[in-house]
Amino acid sequence: MIKSDHITWQTSQVSKQERQQLAGHQSAVLWFTGLSGSGKSTIANAVEKALYDQGVGSYVLDGDNMRFGLNKNLGFSAADRTENIRRIGEVAKLFVDAGTLTLTAFISPYRADRDQVRALLADREFIEVFVDTPLAVCEQRDVKQLYAKARRGEITGFTGIDAPYEVPNNPEITIDTSAQPLEVSVNQVLVYLQNHGYLGGRRDD
Ligand SMILES: Nc1ncnc2c1ncn2[C@@H]1O[C@H](COP(=O)(O)OS(=O)(=O)O)[C@@H](OP(=O)(O)O)[C@H]1O
Ligand SMILES: Nc1ncnc2c1ncn2[C@@H]1O[C@H](COP(=O)(O)OP(=O)(O)O)[C@@H](O)[C@H]1O
Predict the structure, then answer these.
(1) For residue 64, is pLDDT > 80?
(2) What does residue 201 show for φ and ψ, rounded to 5 degrees?
(3) Predicted confidence (pLDDT) at residue 173 exceeds the cutoff of 50
(4) How confident is the model at residue 56 (pLDDT cuts 50, 70, 90)?
(5) Catalytic residue list contains 77
(6) How many angstroms does the Cα of residue 40 sit away from the middle of ligand 2?
(7) Prediction pTM value
(8) Nearest ligand to the C-alpha of residue 107?
(9) Is residue 178 marked as binding?
């Protein structure tokens, strides 16, 4: 629902297609979703670097970082996570309109919230990347020692422990970081982008 009256969408003299043409590639969102510690940020950042090395500009929106700024008034209740993802979806949509290949790394545990973002974007503009690393592996990594805290009851509502993670039904890409090294995951994403025509050249679909 929009609260403001008397507002009008301002159209631009440069279209999204023209911005994409200038950039030399399609714009879209690679939406990484998965448990804390599954590898979302690591893969997204490595993909950004690999794309940069190929002369393709992209930008990573990262969970923790967004919570320091735009979303600093949000916590981890179900309602706050939904609002977190809604805002990120709107930001990602603006990035796509700007002609940018955008990578997002948020747990985004609720299927309905992810589907809302998909619905915000045009066909092909939302690429869901399910980082399907088993909970046991994420917990063993425990990069930030948050699983240990959650197990001790020092954090409540922690995803995978006492808060839900709803797995995607039809992700465009699925990656299990416990089964393959980082370079293979990065390549999996790059090959998807190449084969589906996002980077220019031949399209498989
Ligand atoms: N309760 C609880 N549950 C899950 N995660 C928690 C929690 N509290 C803090 N953290 C840290 O916050 C990071 C997840 O933030 P996100 O914005 O991606 O979460 S969400 O999409 O809104 O669910 C997550 O970072 P990542 O490990 O990068 O996923 C955690 O470090
Ligand atoms: N094959 C792999 N692919 C990606 N990350 C891996 C792999 N093996 C170990 N890791 C480690 O797992 C951790 C994943 O953390 P991170 O990328 O921050 O996850 P998330 O963003 O999903 O919370 C990193 O410390 C990374 O070095």
Answers:
(1) no
(2) 90, -160
(3) yes
(4) very high
(5) no
(6) 7
(7) 0.96
(8) 1
(9) no
User: Does residue 75 form part of some domain?
Assistant: yes
Task: Please name the residue whose Cα sits nearest to atom 25 of ligand 1.
Answer: 36
**Which CATH number belongs to the domain containing residue 91 in this structure?**
3.40.50.300
Is ligand 1 within 6 A of the CB of residue 89? no
Whether 65 is in a domain gets the answer: yes
Token pair 């979806």 is at which residue? 89
Domain extent, residue 43, equals 16-195
* Measured distance CA(177)–CA(10) in Å, rounded: 43
Residue 149's pLDDT band, with cuts at 50, 70 and 90, is: very high
| 116 contacts 89 by C-beta, under 8 angstroms | yes
- Is 154 a domain residue? yes
pLDDT in tens, 37-51: 999 999 999 999 999
Torsion sign across C-alpha atoms 83, 116, 78, 66: negative
For residue 118, how far is its CA from the centre of ligand 1 (angstroms)?
Answer: 21
CA of 168 to the centre of ligand 2 (A): 20
Residue 86 has pLDDT above 80, yes or no: yes
In short, whether 33's Cβ falls inside 6 Å of ligand 2 is: no
Task: Point out the catalytic residue in the list 12, 27, 58, 108.
Answer: 108
Q: Band the pLDDT of 5: cuts 50, 70, 90.
A: confident
Q: By C-alpha distance, which of 138, 132, 173, 159 is closest to 30?
A: 173
Domain count for the chain: 1
Helix 78-97 × helix 16-23 angle, to 10°: 70
